[in-house]
Amino acid sequence: MPDSEELDEILKEIKNINAPKEKPEPKEEQPLTLADDKPAKEEAKATPKPVKENVNFNDFSSFNSAQHSDIPKDNKGEKKMPKKKGKNKKPLIIVIVVILVAAIAVAAVFAVKNKNKEPETTTPQTTQEQTVQTPVVSKVNPLTGDSDFNEKAVGKRPIACVVENSVSARPQWGINDSKNPPDIIVEGEVEGGETRMLWMYADYTAVPSQIGPMRSARPPYIKFSELFDAIFLHWGQSQTKRGTNYIGANTIFRQDKVDHINQMTYGGKVALFGRDSSRGVSTEHTGVLYGAKIADAIKGEKFRTDANESKYTKFNFAKEETTVSDTECNTLGLTFSSRTATRDWTYNSSDKMYHCNDYKTDVARKNLLVLFDKTEYVSKANYKNSGSAEVYCNYKLSGGNGKLATDGTVIDITWSVDNGVLVIKDTDGKDVNFNVGTTWIGYASSNNGGSVK
User: Fold this and answer.
1) Strand duo 439-445 + 367-373: pairing
2) Radius of gyration of the chain (CA)
3) What pTM did the predictor assign?
4) For residue range 369-419, what is the model confidence (pLDDT) as tens digits?
5) CB 370, CB 444: distance < 8 Å
6) Per the omega criterion (within 30 degrees of 0), is the bond before 219 cis?
7) Which one of 3.50.90.10, 3.40.50.150, 3.10.20.310, 3.40.50.720 gives the CATH number of domain 152-452?
């Protein structure tokens, strides 16, 4: 195959061959005699004029000069036709050879180009479906940190249920349920040296079939439930007494526009409340709440069910189980005030849980949180038309100090309410981490004899 230099030489040769030749100077014509003219004319008529084979047909001037060039004469005076000479065929052969070589060269060049050119492949057009990124839903219980949480309950409001804690009410139905115990239990003083509890569930569709005994609402419990944007469930409520300085639960519900269901005024079609008299105690200790009916009751009341995240307290949970300090805490005893008994908890290193038997059953919690708050006692004259006064314990929800015990260790904490949520810090102002699991909150008096040991 010729290379590029050989091709250049071939093209130059073709160019030279096709270039117009210089016209030869015309020879001086000899005048013809009359005698010579006649035979010449006759011979011309008989013999056609040959065309030179090496004529360049692209050059019309050469063609015309070839037709009118002089015809040499022989010795007899006759015009002599020129003989074809072999050397006249040479240019034509060269032209043909050059053309063939050029054609072969051009064909070779195109062949090389086509060989080096990548073959075009036809890729079948496919319609690519756009994949919509589905946001990953966090399946973490906001009250316990457990990852095995009902996806349908994510982003929903919790519920807060008022549960009695007098001796006749123990053991409470559902307090140590093996599958769904309360996520958070809040316990504090109400009146007469007695405590009452507030049970909180992040997923109200998973409440046990029966919990209780249910009791009446008190202002501090309503206020505390608002820190979690909870729907409030109760059996009765304290009433504001005109002419006194006591503000009852009924007023707080109205002022704060709290979503709540009160058994004593509930006229819904759902059998949400009932009684269990199997224990043989007085009627006031028999009121129960049916867990399977809660969702229908809330739907019937048309309450908002999506949580207001900005008003929903969420504790910080450690990614891995951990101690909170080097200070051991194998037992914790909390006295809510000088009027109450002490609640005692004991740490079990086997299951890493704190246990309490004061409820006539074993209650286990992962975290113990103690909050000290200022309290005041408010006397309500002629309580329940008894002719005597009852002294209620009100909490100020003003913030203060406390303790956090988990995994057999304890730290001092501070707490406050900021923009409607509960904030827990250590004494250096840093966030504290709870261990994943259930929590008991002991709500005690900082100014009326509350203490922890």
Assistant:
1) parallel
2) 56
3) 0.71
4) 999 999 999 887 766 666 677 789 999 999 999 999 999 999 999 999 999
5) yes
6) no
7) 3.50.90.10
